[in-house]
Each structure stands twice: as structure tokens, then as C-alpha cells.
Amino acid sequence: MFTIEHEFDATVVTLIDEAALHRQEDITITAFEDCVTIEQASRDGETTQKITLSLAQLADLTAALNLPEGVYTRQDSP
């Protein structure tokens, strides 16, 4: 299950791990104009891990999900 919220300066997607046998904490993905952040709270709720991806890194990740093992360079279309 997931939720989508449109805020003033970002779109926020929350992924809820409801079907897992050993449920993980929710993941919040926030898309800003120039980057995307991914956050997940610890099980005890005391800390939060945060990763920030540039838009180029996000494009590389998107491409990588559909490719076989290897080393690649992504070329932007003109």
C-alpha cells in the first residue's frame, strides 16, 4: 500500500510494508525540484536514516532496474 501527497514544494510518497512477514518500517520518498530524498525511521522510532539522490542518480537508478548485470553510462537524449 502507498500514499501520495502533493505539498507546496514537493510530492511525498509513503510506502507501507503491510504484507511482509517481518514488516519493515514505512519509507517516505520526497521529490523536490532538484533532488529526491528517501527516509526510513528505525524500529524504535528514535532515529531516521535519510538518503538524498540527485535527479541524475535517480535517472541512473531507473535505468538500472531494467538492465542486466554490467557497467553502464547513461546518455541523455538531446
Characterise the protein shown here.
- This protein has 78 residues and is mainly β.
- It has one domain (2-64).
- The chain is 13% helix and 37% strand.
- The protein has one helix and five strands; from the N terminus they run E-E-E-E-E-H.
- The protein has a five-stranded antiparallel β-sheet with strand order 1-2-3-4-5.
- It is globular, with a radius of gyration of 15 Å.
Question: Short description, anyone?
Answer:
With 78 residues, the chain is mainly beta. 13% of the residues lie in helices and 37% in strands. β3 (27-31) and β4 (35-41) form a beta hairpin.
How are the secondary structure elements laid out?
Elements: E1 2-6, E2 11-15, E3 27-31, E4 35-41, E5 48-54, H1 55-64
Antiparallel strand pairs: 1-2, 2-3, 3-4, 4-5
The termini sit apart by 37 Å
Mean pLDDT: 88
In spatial order, strands of the major sheet run 1-2-3-4-5
Number of individual domains: 1
- H/I helix tally: 1
Label the structural class: mainly beta
- The oligomeric state is single chain
Biggest beta sheet summary: 5 strands, antiparallel
**Topology order in helix (H) and strand (E) letters:** EEEEEH
Rg, please?
15 Å
Which features would summarize this protein structure in a list?
1 helix, 37% strand, 78 residues, globular
